[in-house]
Amino acid sequence: MPDDFDGMLYPWGGCTVHPLRGVMSGQKVSQYTIIVQATDMEGNLNFGLSNTATAIITVTDINDNPPMLTSRTFSGEVPENTVDVAVANLTVIDADQPHSPNWNAAYRIISGDPTGHFTIRTDPITNDGMVTVVKPVDFEMNRAFMLTVVVSNQAHLANGIQSSLQSTAGVTISVKDVNEPPYFPTNPKQIRFEEGVPTGTSLTTFSASDPDRLQMQQIIRYSKMNDPANWLSINRTSGQIVTTGMLDRESVYVKNNIYEATFLATDNGSPAASGTGTLQIYLIDINDNPPALVPKESQICERMNKNVNGVNITAADADTDPNAGPFVFELPNFPSSIRRNWTIARISGDYARLALRYQVYLEPGMYEVPIIVSDSGNPPLSNRSVIKVKVCPCDENGDCTTLGAVAAAGLGTGAIISILICIIILLCMVLLFVVWIKRREKERQTKQLLIDPEDDVRDNILKYDEEGGGEEDQDYDLSQLQQPDSLEHIISKPPGVRRVDERPIIPESQYPIRPVVPHPGDIGDFIHEGLRAADNDPTAPPYDSLLVFDYEGSGSTAGSVSSLNSTSTGDQDYDYLNDWGPRFKKLADMYGGGDDD
């Protein structure tokens, strides 16, 4: 039992331990261990029996110590336009059990920040308070903030415990000036202008403001950042915007009648800062586009019927109301055949019907019909357009027939008949040519049948004087004939008369293999080089000497042909040709003495 603990056991209603002096403090001793002795016979140690037990007493902490800040004043600094940064650190002490609700601190700002630029977050490890910026501050609006903060615990103080004066402190936050970018007060800025304004027209002044101009004496310069159609320019110092091209509402760069351009404002700070602004120009439509006829091609029946009454036409205009429809469709006065053959009837404000006049017949073909189309602008614009109309015979449904489709391609009935006649004539010529070829072939075969059967020798060609099937010895080394490897078999021969048809014993000159001629211009050099090598070859024989060639074997077994001579035809008897058969009968009749049959 600790020395500062005295206790008494009260047996009434069970044994209870009560401290008799001092106050139990959890910060000093968090646990007590005591030994309890029980004796009967009213505690008579001489006669009574006794026993002991151990009791462990844990002291539970209560929030009896308020948190206290280590200083009455704190300070910090924050650059303007920054967020989520800690600008001051508040330290606190608390005697209660660490990391318990009685020890954990909670900070609040009770004055000095009406717009909520700051908050205080508790460090879970050190229990310090971190003053953090949650909304950007502006040096030009507030150069310093005087905050009053109070700290408390997560758990309420125990009964009878008062808050300390050291639970409240003042925090001074100084705002540091930085170079802020210029900004456009009206962004985006919208203006309205008619399209087609001339080049050099001043549209507006798009100026920016710099919060640092008074403190840092800065100058703003303007430039163009994005101008899709390159229609605008801006003055570098004043921000005045002037047109450099004609504004066109029908341009692909205009969306929903609005043209957008982006401009840049840059100051001369260190470092320089810049801001962007968007200018939106709403373009008011003017009547600057004439209408165009739609469609460009169509077809119509050569004779009107109850199902098909003509061609519906309309117009397309890039302008909008009131500079577009309703449209006016007219036929021109020249040439006169247009109004004589065609007519236009109004269907609605945007549509009309082009048709052939009643009882007017046009041959099938392609016709170009000029039509004058006018819009409703002030003043109106007109356009002379041409529609290509195919006039063709039609069926009951108003569709062109096959002949009509061909005629509508630009050929009249007479031209079609001429083409058909030419095709028939061409087919007749081809037929006559085939008949002539067949007749000629038949005449040739008939003429061959009139030839004497004895003169018509139809037999295979006999091949005489066959000299065999080539060389029998095919097993030899061709390289031995081209370049002998050694001359030992020739040198080792006994001395004697040398045959002129043997291979010479002196080796031929070996010339280096010349590479492929890179260019035709080197052919002359190649020939001269070969000639020079042949002239300087020491093994070459003189011009008047006997040339020795490779041995080619023994001579021919046939006799000399010098014994053959010619005799007169009178000395010859060709009657033996009659014995050779019908194939030689013609020859026997020519050279024999008999008469022809």
TrEMBL record:
Membrane topology listed for this record: Single-pass type I membrane protein
Alphabetical list of SUPFAM superfamilies matching this protein: Cadherin-like (SSF49313)
Entry's Gene Ontology molecular function annotations: beta-catenin binding; cadherin binding; calcium ion binding
Domain annotation Cadherin: ranges: 27-69, 70-184, 185-293, 292-403
Entries under SMART domains matching the protein: CA
Protein name: Cadherin-4
Gene designation: CDH4_5
TM helices/strands, residue ranges: 415-437
Function: Cadherins are calcium-dependent cell adhesion proteins.
Primary localization class, coarse: other
GO annotation (BP), single: calcium-dependent cell-cell adhesion via plasma membrane cell adhesion molecules
Superkingdom of source: Eukaryota
Subcellular location: Cell junction, Adherens junction; Cell membrane
Organism: Crenichthys baileyi (White River springfish)
Swiss-Prot/TrEMBL keywords: Calcium, Cell adhesion, Cell junction, Cell membrane, Glycoprotein, Membrane, Metal-binding, Repeat, Transmembrane, Transmembrane helix
PANTHER family on file: CADHERIN-23, CADHERIN-4
UniProt GO cellular component terms: adherens junction; catenin complex
Pfam families assigned: CADH_Y-type_LIR, Cadherin
Annotated Gene3D superfamilies: Cadherins, TCF3-CBD (Catenin binding domain)
